[in-house]
Design a protein that fits this description.
The protein is α+β, with helices and mostly antiparallel strands and 238 residues long. It is 24% helix and 16% strand. It has 2 domains: 75 residues, Ubiquitin-like (UB roll) (Roll); 136 residues, Alpha-Beta Plaits (2-Layer Sandwich), CATH 3.30.70.20. The relative contact order is 0.14.
């Protein structure tokens, strides 16, 4: 396997050829914030939290969709990047209705963790307070649009891991919504297999197990990468 060398935050490092900057950074001990990335599925660069500065590039690049190249010089924690990330997290909080004190994943939420990580103790923008519904029509799970950050994890996991493609996106801008089967109630979506993979992938309380109480819903995302690796290694083929 070919290896490339690069510099990340003034430290010389190496990575396998074809690796993304997000992967290379992680292997070098540099943790980059992200909401849309989840192990086992493709990356789309939706949340823009993993933006980095690359020497010679005029714009910031998403680490999850940018491959590392020989001699690349990367900076991941400049003042500019830290301000960008804080702004993104603030905008996510202001766009929907994230009330952590009554959320089922309070204490287990990636958005909440990011707010703490970037030092966000208030939101500088006006809250939109959109009228978002809660879909509790499914026998096992509930969808709460108030908590959704449009990371598209559920869409990719359902499509690439389960193969059902129940989920998709409808609308534009602040009116975007995650929909099931051409905008049907989740409980009426014939394509849904009730596997729960989308619930495990969701970084917030947008998808959760029905009946879960405040701070009770802890999600084990390692199951998704285990399933993908098991399939790739043909562990279940006899």
């Amino acid at each position: 396997m070919a290896v490339v060398t690069f510099t990340i935050d003034d430290v010389l490092a190496s990575a396998r050829e074809g690796a993304t900057l997000l992967e290379a950074a992680g292997e070098s001990g540099v943790k980059l914030p992200t909401l849309c990335h989840v192990e086992g599925v493709s990356d789309v660069g939706a949340c823009r939290l993993c933006l980095v500065e690359v020497e010679g590039q005029r714009k910031l690049l998403p680490a999850c969709t940018t491959n590392v190249t020989e001699g690349m010089v990367v900076r991941t924690a400049t003042e500019k990047l830290q301000e960008y990330r804080r702004t993104i997290v603030e905008l996510l909080f202001s766009e929907r209705n994230h009330v952590c004190s009554v959320c089922v994943v309070n204490g287990h939420c990636e958005l909440q963790d990011l707010a703490i990580e970037v030092g966000m103790d208030h939101v500088r923008f006006d809250y939109l307070h959109p009228q978002c519904d809660v879909d509790a029509t499914h026998a096992r799970f509930t969808r709460d649009h108030n908590r959704c950050v449009l990371c598209s994890r559920c869409i990719r996991v359902c499509d690439e891991v389960e193969g059902a493609h129940t989920w998709d996106v409808m609308g534009r801008g602040a009116n975007c919504r995650i929909i099931a089967d051409m905008d049907m109630p989740w409980g009426s979506a014939d394509s849904c297999t009730s596997c729960g993979k989308c619930v495990m992938a969701c970084p917030t309380g947008a998808l959760f197990t029905s009946g879960a109480t405040t701070a009770e819903m802890e999600k084990d995302r390692s199951r998704l990468s285990f399933i993908v690796q098991a399939r790739e290694n043909h562990r279940w083929v006899r």
